Amino acid sequence: MSKENKTAFITGGSKGIGYGVARALLQMGYKVAVTSRSLSSAEKAAEKLSSFGDIIGLEADVRDFESQKKAVQKVLDKWGQLDVLIANAGIGNFGSVEELTVEEWKDTIDTNLNGVFYSIKACVEALKKSEGYIITISSLAGTNFFAGGAAYNASKFGVTGFTQAVMLDLRDKGVKVSTIMPGSVATYFNDHEPSEEDAWKIQIEDIGELVGDLLKMNPRTLPSKIEVRPSRPPQK
Asked: pTM to 2 decimals?
């Protein structure tokens, strides 16, 4: 099957890593659906990326399983199949466990961990039919803990371990599963505004290129966990 007939579903695709991956997959010939909690944000991103290929923007909240199912069904209704899931949507709430609120904890776990489970659960039957690919976006914080990272570390450690278990669950069904664990990326994450000062960081197009490389990998080989970091971070 040519890439022109393949489809990808990207959560949190209106900006940042999800946006960079969407652009890379469009340039490879994939049809792409990007989601955001805000329909206007998703549609605005789709409009900006439309020159690269066939793309739609959908409103979906990864914290809500029914919302994910409805979004996936829209992809299936439009294109008839689903070949790639990029479970990317995530947030960051940071602070000492003394300061972290119950609401911040729940929102972090609901978005970063439950959201990945809901996204995979909503897509898994379609991906089994296409013998597709699941890629989750974890973080180096999913294996390296730090002060003030209680909620974020917990969510990303969870994503890393969960994804590896899913890989073992699904590889005999023909579905490939990988997790990408980036370090510092030049995105809008945690209300950051990317600038020229972020030139040393991983760029969103770098993650897009990495996703493309995974999708082009010979089917007999599965890079299941990929750590990626800036090659020359500033010296402290």
From this structure: 0.94
Annotated active-site residue 152? The verdict is yes
Number of domains, the chain: 1
Contacts of 106 (CB under 8 A, 6+ apart): none
Backbone angles phi, psi at 193, to 5 degrees: -110, 110
Rounded CA-CA distance 145/189 in Å is 18
- Model pLDDT for residues 77-118, shown as the tens digit of each residue: 999 999 999 999 999 999 999 999 999 999 999 999 999 999
How far is residue 30's CA from residue 108's CA, in Å, rounded to a whole number?
31
Q: What is the CATH number of the domain that holds 55?
A: 3.40.50.720
Q: How many residues does the chain have?
A: 236
For the cut 70, the answer to whether the pLDDT of residue 189 exceeds it is no
Residue 234 lies in a domain: no
Show the domain range for 93: 3-228
Whether residue 11 is predicted with pLDDT greater than 50 in this model: the reply is yes
**Active site residue: 19, 30, 133, 152, which one?**
152
In a domain, 236, yes or no: no
Please check the confidence at residue 40 and state whether its pLDDT lies above 70. yes
Closest CA to 214 of 21, 76, 5, 4: 21
